[in-house]
């Protein structure tokens, strides 16, 4: 399969490729969808690094849904559309967040480690994604799974784990940061 095209694959073949962690399928999916996400994020007050982080989170959501058998394609571009929509929603959530508003009002610059080549780092990220998720503690895996994959609200998580809403929010953030650090290693 040409590494830069998934257009000839059915959604079922694409899903199977993701289930089997086929790098060429996942790389091609990345190359097809990420430029659209990058464009959306940059056009909406973001930068390249933020787009990469948002897309990575969205890819994790999609990958987990496929692995769990929870993703059922509805049309010929379901996965691509799902990835873009999750990325878009995550970016809009970020724009509405108090952290973004504080950074914007103070004129702060987020310092992120810049990725030099998307294609090269994609392979590393994809291979570490599953491993990193498994390296998280059980509570972090459970929290992230329930929030991102089962779409439980922070209020529901707080109630389930016996936390305050703020504690649930802080724990979700800490778990995502742990996951990001594990992936970046």
Automatic annotation (TrEMBL):
<dbReference type="InterPro" id="IPR007627">
    <property type="entry name" value="RNA_pol_sigma70_r2"/>
</dbReference>
<keyword id="KW-0805">Transcription regulation</keyword>
<dbReference type="Pfam" id="PF04542">
    <property type="entry name" value="Sigma70_r2"/>
</dbReference>
<feature type="domain" description="RNA polymerase sigma-70 region 4">
    <location>
        <begin position="132"/>
        <end position="181"/>
    </location>
</feature>
<keyword id="KW-0804">Transcription</keyword>
<dbReference type="InterPro" id="IPR007630">
    <property type="entry name" value="RNA_pol_sigma70_r4"/>
</dbReference>
<protein>
    <submittedName>
        <fullName>RNA polymerase sigma factor (Sigma-70 family)</fullName>
    </submittedName>
</protein>
<comment type="similarity">
    <text>Belongs to the sigma-70 factor family. ECF subfamily.</text>
</comment>
<feature type="domain" description="RNA polymerase sigma-70 region 2">
    <location>
        <begin position="29"/>
        <end position="99"/>
    </location>
</feature>
<dbReference type="GO" id="GO:0003677">
    <property type="term" value="F:DNA binding"/>
</dbReference>
<dbReference type="GO" id="GO:0006352">
    <property type="term" value="P:DNA-templated transcription initiation"/>
</dbReference>
<keyword id="KW-0238">DNA-binding</keyword>
<keyword id="KW-0731">Sigma factor</keyword>
<dbReference type="Pfam" id="PF04545">
    <property type="entry name" value="Sigma70_r4"/>
</dbReference>
<dbReference type="InterPro" id="IPR036388">
    <property type="entry name" value="WH-like_DNA-bd_sf"/>
</dbReference>
<dbReference type="InterPro" id="IPR014284">
    <property type="entry name" value="RNA_pol_sigma-70_dom"/>
</dbReference>
<dbReference type="InterPro" id="IPR013325">
    <property type="entry name" value="RNA_pol_sigma_r2"/>
</dbReference>
<dbReference type="GO" id="GO:0016987">
    <property type="term" value="F:sigma factor activity"/>
</dbReference>
<dbReference type="InterPro" id="IPR039425">
    <property type="entry name" value="RNA_pol_sigma-70-like"/>
</dbReference>
<dbReference type="InterPro" id="IPR013324">
    <property type="entry name" value="RNA_pol_sigma_r3/r4-like"/>
</dbReference>
């Amino acid at each position: 399969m040409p590494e830069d095209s998934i257009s000839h694959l059915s959604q079922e073949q694409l899903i199977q490729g993701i289930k089997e962690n086929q790098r060429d399928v996942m790389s091609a999916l990345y190359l097809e969808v990420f430029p659209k996400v990058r464009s959306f994020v940059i056009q909406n007050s973001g930068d390249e690094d933020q787009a990469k982080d948002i897309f990575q989170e969205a890819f994790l959501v999609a990958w987990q849904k496929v692995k769990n058998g929870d993703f059922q394609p509805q049309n010929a571009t379901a996965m691509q559309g799902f990835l873009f929509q999750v990325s878009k929603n995550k970016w809009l959530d970020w724009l509405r967040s108090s952290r973004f508003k504080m950074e914007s009002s103070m004129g702060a610059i987020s310092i992120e480690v810049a990725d030099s080549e998307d294609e090269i780092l994609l392979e590393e990220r994809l291979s570490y994604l599953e491993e990193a998720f498994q390296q998280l503690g059980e509570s972090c895996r459970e929290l992230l799974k329930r929030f991102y994959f089962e779409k439980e609200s922070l209020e529901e998580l707080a109630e389930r784990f016996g936390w305050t809403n703020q504690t649930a929010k802080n724990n979700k953030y800490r778990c995502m940061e742990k996951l990001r650090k594990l992936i970046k290693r």
